[in-house]
């Protein structure tokens, strides 16, 4: 049966199911791999092919444009999600007895349909927390010199190949005292440990974590932020939290525009290939021997001295407990410095091979347990590279796993 057509004079739009678009994107990915396999075929080695390189370049450019066009077909405005959240505000006002104004910015920002379908519930948890825990009641706001009506700002913007969605309120902010006390009770920190705010706020995403004294139909069960964290991990996204006492809290979600294709740099460490999303790469450095400083003989922890600052080193073969380094090669040939919400980390590799837009495939079965990985990248050479999740690499370094 043919797809229904919108015959409005000013539209000329055709409704196409998302399943068909996803199928098209899968085929475009296979096309990209087939082209790469063809132009890099060993059968072409040694042949004199006039103008072949120019033709290959043009073919690759066309395939890249087809990939971009297919990606755009599955993009929808994030306002589709924001509209549903706006409708919830009136219900939240009734349930909390608070006056709430919601402002929406950047609703026309485009986001992958697969992301939009999974984003509503996690965002709803954040908005509920802002309304229930963040915003004060009218009397408390008056006493603090604020207007009686609390404000929640829901915004979206595209930053490079990512979409940043932010939920910010002008409430009381996160309670460091309550969160730290609960975190110590659960064993996340020692009794005398005083973590930085960026480290402390991350515990609110742990399963079952809640500082609420009573369970309500809005919050207190300790599952909402855990759902958000799990969803963001599945979407290859990351979360940032900022809060100031008496001024409010800001939760920022950073999500890739497309889940099908990913711009990466391809790395080699010994026999293993890895891929790192290009957006998180800060720089690539060639260290001198004195630039790598050991800080713990017991755990093997190291730091890289970079222009006077020290960056934690994450050796992938130690992290995965798998020998990869070639004994005949220089282990510290190149360091890839990547940005994470916990700060930069440096990853030693033998060489940088290429920059590619790769086709992403999830790890399934036993491979799904591979740590700190988004999935695998299929390369034009027929090889497979492990796509690194640098946020979880950084967490492993901080926890002594690397």
- Using the 3D structure, state the CATH architecture of the largest domain: 2-Layer Sandwich
CATH topology of the largest domain: Heat Shock Protein 90
Q: Mind telling me the CATH superfamily name of the largest domain? A: Histidine kinase-like ATPase, C-terminal domain
Please compute the radius of gyration using only Cα atoms.
Answer: 24 Å
State the end-to-end distance: 55 Å
Number of strands: 18
- Strand arrangement within the widest β-sheet reads 2-4-5-7-6
Order of helices and strands: HHEHEEHHEEHHHEEEEEEEEHEEEEEH
Which CATH top level class of the largest domain fits?
Alpha Beta
Description:
- With 402 residues, the chain is an alpha+beta fold.
- It folds into two domains: 76-256, Heat Shock Protein 90 (2-Layer Sandwich), CATH 3.30.565; 261-398, Beta Barrel (OB fold (Dihydrolipoamide Acetyltransferase, E2P)), CATH 2.40.50.180.
- The chain has ten helices and 18 strands.
- A five-stranded mixed beta sheet has the order 2-4-5-7-6, with helices on one face. Strands 8-9-18-17-16 form a five-stranded mixed barrel.
- A hairpin with a 5-residue loop joins strand 17 (373-378) and strand 18.
- The chain is globular and about 80 Å long.
Summarize it:
With 402 residues, the protein is of the alpha+beta class. Helices cover 32% and strands 28% of the residues. It has 2 domains: 76-256, Histidine kinase-like ATPase, C-terminal domain (Heat Shock Protein 90); 261-398, OB fold (Dihydrolipoamide Acetyltransferase, E2P) (Beta Barrel), CATH 2.40.50.
